[in-house]
Amino acid sequence: MVDIVIVPDVHGRKFWQDAIPYIQNGTPVVFLGDYLDPYAHEGITPEMAIDNFMDILRKTEGHDNVTLLAGNHDMTYIAPEANICECRTDYEHFDELHHLFTHNAHRFRLVHQVRRDMSVPPVTFSHAGIHPGWLKLIKDNWAEDAEVMLNGTLEDILKLDKHGILTYLSHVSRERGGWNKYGSVVWADIHEFQWDDELWPGLQVVGHTQQLKKEPTEGGWWKWVGDKPVRVQNVVCLDCHQCFYLDPDMDIRYLKDDKVVD
Questions:
Q1: Which of 38, 143, 215, 217 could form a disulfide with 44 if both were Cys (CB 3.0 to 4.6 A apart)?
Q2: Residue 163 pLDDT more than 80?
Q3: Residue 166: how many CB atoms within 10 A of its CB?
Q4: In terms of C-beta density within 10 A (0-12 exposed, 13-18 middle, 19 or more buried), how is residue 262 classed?
Q5: pTM tops 0.70
Q6: Strand segments (E) across the chain
Q7: Which helix (H) or strand (E) holds 155?
Q8: Residue-wise pLDDT tens digits, 205-247
Q9: What pLDDT is attached to residue 197?
């Protein structure tokens, strides 16, 4: 039984369309963010990625069962003043994308939590994962604002910018070439959670850190393709160019063949 469908980083790819029947039949569906800024070697142009993103917005509009999360690439267009990300940014269409995101800010979130049993912690979905050390930095200074970032829409979160709190989303650790001790909820790397004694309670489901393998092509060349998910402590990274689902037993499975992610 499919309980929650999970769509990892899109980046212009169309694998998300496997989730359309579930969007339409009312099954909960969570997108983990990063809808734009495609990789050139995949043959997806910025224009194609924009069309794909607009198709996602159209297909999910009016469906309360769908949760759209924002990733680091999305926050570039949503809050450019916070300098959150400058990776493959589409400056040619920047104004258009900024308008598109801000117009739909009420539909996006940074975090989505699902709790089925009050005796156990909820399952937490985000783009890159919540590191307790990063969250503590915010709570020590802006406790109420931290709650908004965890529970509010992007429309709510953007109103916090008077405090400059959005700059906390730009935190990048050394795992990603940055200088911060912890990466933010849109920037943390799966490997940051490897040695932590303090863990965010419950299962975390994230994308952001691509799990790839080399696949040979004609002419002796090769390409990167999605590989298997990886789990570090209580964090599962699904950035593998395909959809997954969470079943009632809290196992994560591949949507296409129903196999359990080991």
A1: 38
A2: no
A3: 21
A4: exposed
A5: yes
A6: 4-7, 29-31, 66-69, 108-109, 111-114, 123-126, 204-206, 212-216, 222-226, 230-232, 235-237, 244-246, 252-254
A7: helix 154-158
A8: 999 998 888 778 777 777 777 788 999 999 999 999 999 999 9
A9: 66
Q: What residues does 111 pair with on adjacent strands?
A: 126
Distance CA 135, CA 147 (A): 10
Pairing of strands 244-246, 252-254: antiparallel
Residue where the block lists tokens 């985000």? 126
HSE-CB for 86 with a 13 A CA cutoff: 5
Which DSSP state fits 202? S
Helix (H, G, I), strand (E, B) or coil at 196: coil
Residues 6+ apart with CB under 8 A from 258: none
Using alpha carbons, select from 232, 240, 211, 186 the residue that is nearest to residue 70: 186
The set of residues, in sequence order, having a beta carbon less than 8 Å from that of 84 and lying 6+ positions away, is 72, 75, 76, 166, 169, 170, 186, 187
Nearby residues of 157 by Cβ (< 8 Å), 6 or more positions away? 110, 148, 149, 166
Q: Could you give the CA distance from residue 11 to residue 36 in angstroms, rounded to a whole number?
A: 5
Alpha carbons 42 and 11: distance in angstroms, whole number: 10
Rounded to whole angstroms, how far apart are CA atoms 172 and 174? 7
Give the amino acid at 93. Answer: H
Please return the burial class of 151, using the count of CB atoms within 10 Å of its CB with bins 0-12, 13-18 and 19+: middle
Q: How far apart are CA 177 and CA 41, in angstroms?
A: 22
Q: What is the DSSP string of 107-147?
A: GEESEEEE-S-TTSPPEEEESS---HHHHHHHHHHHHHHHH
Tokens 């959005």 correspond to 166
Rg, Å, the chain Cα set: 18
